[in-house]
Amino acid sequence: MFKRDKSALLRFNKIFLERNREFRMQCGGIYADHAAKGLLKSGATIKKCYKAFEFEQNLALDECFLLISRLTDEPNKTRTRLLQNLRSIVEQNSITRNKQLVARLEKMGVLIGNDGHGATGRLFRAILARLVDQIDKYDEGLTAPKIEQWHIRHPILVRVIPAIIVASIIGLFSLLFGLINLAKLIE
Questions:
Q1: One domain for residues 96 and 30
Q2: 72: which of 51, 79, 99, 164 fits an S-S bond (Cβ 3.0–4.6 Å)?
Q3: Same domain assignment for residues 142 and 159
Q4: For the segment 104-147, what is each residue's pLDDT rounded down to a tens digit?
Q5: Which domain holds residue 163?
Q6: DSSP code string of 104-148
Q7: Number of domains in the chain
Q8: What gap in Å lies between CA 95 and CA 120, rounded to an integer?
Q9: Do both 158 and 126 map to the same domain?
C-alpha cells in the first residue's frame, strides 16, 4: 500500500467517524421527538433513524468521492484500489452502526419481537446495497466528477492576478523614481 493510499484511508475513516457522530445526535433528537409525540413504538422511529443513517452515509461517501477525485484525475489502478478500500470501510462501518442502532432501539423498547428485527434487517440491507451501488457506479466512471484544472475553473483570476502583479511592480518603480527625484530636489 502506498503512502497516499494510507493517508486517504485515514481520511476516509475520519470522515465516517464525523458522520457517525452526527448520526448519533440525529437519532437522539428522533427518539426525544417521537417519545414526546407518543410515536416511539410505531415503526416511524425505526424508519426515520434508518433514513438519518442513509443520509449521513451518503454525505460521507460524497466527501470520500471528492477526496478520491482530488487524488486521481481519471479511472486507474489507484482509484480502483482506493474504491475497494472505501467499499470495505463502508461495509464494516455500516454493519457496526447497524448493530449499535439495533441495540439502542432494543434498549429504548422500540424493537419488539421478530417483526421489528425483520424490518431493521430489510432496511439495512437495502441501504447497504444502495451505498455499495454508488461506489460501483463511481468506479465505472458513471458518477465520478470531472475535476477541471485551476486555470479553467477560475479564468478571471488567471487574468486579474498577473495584472495586479504588474500594476504593483509599476507602482513600486514609480514610487522609487519619485523618491529618487525627491532626494535630488532636497540636495
A1: yes
A2: 79
A3: no
A4: 888 887 776 666 678 888 999 999 999 999 998 887 765 555 55
A5: 152-186
A6: HHHHTT---HHHHHHHHHHHHHHHHHHHHHHHHHHHTTSS---PP
A7: 2
A8: 12
A9: no
